[in-house]
Automatic annotation (TrEMBL):
Any one Gene Ontology cellular component term annotated for this protein: endoplasmic reticulum membrane
EC number of this enzyme: 1.17.4.4
Membrane topology: Multi-pass membrane protein
InterPro entries (alphabetical): VKOR, VKOR_sf, VKORC1/VKORC1L1
UniProt cross-references to CDD domains, sorted A to Z: VKOR_euk
Keyword annotations: Disulfide bond, Endoplasmic reticulum, Membrane, Oxidoreductase, Quinone, Redox-active center, Transmembrane, Transmembrane helix
Stated family: Belongs to the VKOR family.
Gene Ontology BP terms: vitamin K metabolic process
UniProt-recorded name of the protein: vitamin-K-epoxide reductase (warfarin-sensitive)
Enzyme class: oxidoreductase
Membrane-crossing residue ranges in chain numbering: 7-27, 79-96, 103-121, 127-146
Record localization: Endoplasmic reticulum membrane
Length: 170
C-alpha cells in the first residue's frame, strides 16, 4: 500500500523535474533570442525542435496574454518563468500533510493537466512541431495529478479502526 510519505516523495521529485525542465526551457529561450543560429540539445530535426516551439507566439503568456491583455502585459512572460514559479510552489505545498494543502495540490495539478492538453494541441495542430521538453512537463503534470489525487484520497479517508484484542483474561 502506498503511503502519504511515498506520494509526497513522488510529487516532490516530479515537481523538481518540472522545475529543471522549466529552467532548461528558459535557458534555451534566452540563448535562441540572442543567437538566431542557436541549436539546443532538444533540437533533433525540423519536426522535433524545442527552439521552434520556444520562439513561437505561444511561448509567452501561453499565447493568450498578448491577445487579451496586450504585448506589454505583466503576464506576457515566457511560459518557462511561470513553470519555474509553479513547480517551486508545488514543491513547498507537497511538504505539508494537510487536507487543505492536498486540495490545493489537486486543484493546481488538475489545472496544469488541462493547460498541458491546450499546449499539446497547439504543438501538434498549430505549431506542428514536437518539443521533448514540453512533453516532459506534460508527463510531470500527469504524475503530479495522479499523486495529488491519491494523497487527497488518503488524507480524506476515515482513520482505520484499531482492533482490540478479544482475549479474555483468565
Amino acid at each position: 500500500m502506498v503511503t502519504v510519505r511515498a506520494l509526497n516523495v513522488l510529487f516532490t521529485l516530479s515537481s523538481f523535474t518540472g522545475l529543471a525542465l522549466s529552467i532548461y526551457a528558459f535557458i534555451v529561450e534566452q540563448a535562441a533570442e540572442k543567437d538566431a543560429n542557436y541549436k539546443a540539445m532538444c533540437d533533433i530535426n525540423e519536426f522535433v525542435s524545442c527552439t521552434t516551439v520556444f520562439k513561437s507566439e505561444y511561448a509567452t503568456g501561453f499565447g493568450l496574454a498578448s491577445k487579451f491583455l496586450g504585448k506589454d502585459s505583466f503576464f506576457n512572460k515566457p511560459n518557462s518563468l511561470f513553470g519555474m514559479a509553479f513547480y517551486s510552489l508545488l514543491i513547498v505545498f507537497a511538504q505539508v500533510d494537510s487536507k487543505p494543502f492536498a486540495i490545493l495540490n489537486l486543484i493546481f495539478s488538475t489545472l496544469s493537466v488541462w493547460l498541458s492538453v491546450y499546449l499539446a494541441y497547439l504543438l501538434v495542430f498549430v505549431i506542428r512541431s514536437l518539443c521533448v521538453i514540453c512533453a516532459g512537463t506534460y508527463l510531470v503534470n500527469i504524475i503530479n495529478f495522479a499523486s495529488s489525487y491519491y494523497k487527497f484520497k488518503k488524507l480524506s479517508a476515515p482513520p482505520a479502526k484499531v482492533q482490540k484484542s478479544k482475549k479474555k483474561k483468565a
